[in-house]
Structure formats: structure tokens, C-alpha cells
Amino acid sequence: MQTSDIWDYRRESGFDTDTSDVAGYSVEALDGSIGKIDEATDEVGSSYIVVDTGLWIFGKKVMLPAGVVSKVDHDDEEVHVNRTKDQIKNAPELDEDSYTTDDYRERVGSYYGEGGAGYTRW
Q: How do residues 32-77 score in pLDDT, each as one tens digit?
């Protein structure tokens, strides 16, 4: 996956823009639960989820590009991501004032995209 498509849901994830309201779903990293989805978008080329990590990282919220979503399980209300807890913990912190700006998205996309610290080949 290249950085340019890190902002799109992978077809095989099961995310369907017509039926996928995933707010409130729990988020499962490769090595365990990381929190609940606070917000999700499904805009082509700029989709993401915002995860409230709760007490796991002292209430920190993180933005995950849609391309890291590996599976959406509507029955169990879970979203699985192909990153570890440490990769998510070390991601750029969500800045509530600027998380929709191009600069912030570029930082997050670089972190999670190919070659970035949060990159995992799947």
C-alpha cells in the first residue's frame, strides 16, 4: 500500500459506505483492544477513523487512516486494524483543532504509509 491510498478503505475490509456506521465500535489492533471509534468518515481519498483510547493511553485520541482497517465485523461491532498497539500509541497525537488540515493529514499519512514508523506489510 502506498501513502496515496492509505486514506481509502480496502475493499476486502468489509467497510461499506452505504451500511457502515461504525461509531462506537471497539477497535482491535494486531495485539489487542485499543479503544472505541469516536468518529469515522467515508470520503473517497480522505477517509479515517478517530479512536478514543480511553485509559489505555490516558484518554488520548488518535486518527487512523482508513487504509489500516483490515476488517469490519458488524456482528461483534468491532473494527480490526493491521497495526500494533505500540504503533498506534506512537502515532502523531490527534490535534482537535487541526486534524482535518492537509498538514496534519500529511504527517499521519507519512507515519502510517509505506516506509513510515507505523507501516506494517500485510
A: 999 999 999 988 888 999 999 887 666 789 999 999 999 999 999 9
Please answer whether residues 116 and 5 qualify as being in contact, where contact means their C-beta atoms are separated by less than 8 angstroms. Answer: no
Return d(Cα 104, Cα 122) in angstroms, integer.
25
Each domain of the chain, given as residue ranges in start order, spans 3-112
End-to-end CA distance of the chain: 9
Q: Judge whether 30 and 82 are in contact, CB under 8 Å.
A: yes
The answer to whether 33 and 27 have CB atoms below 8 angstroms apart is yes
- Is residue 13 packed enough to be buried (19+ CB in 10 Å), middle (13-18) or exposed (0-12)? buried
Return left, alpha or beta for 117; rule: phi > 0 is left, psi -120 to 50 is alpha, else beta. alpha
Instruction: Classify domain 3-112 by CATH number.
Output: 2.30.30.240
In percent, the amount of the chain with pLDDT more than 90 equals 51
Using a cut of 0.70, tell me whether the model's pTM lies above it: yes
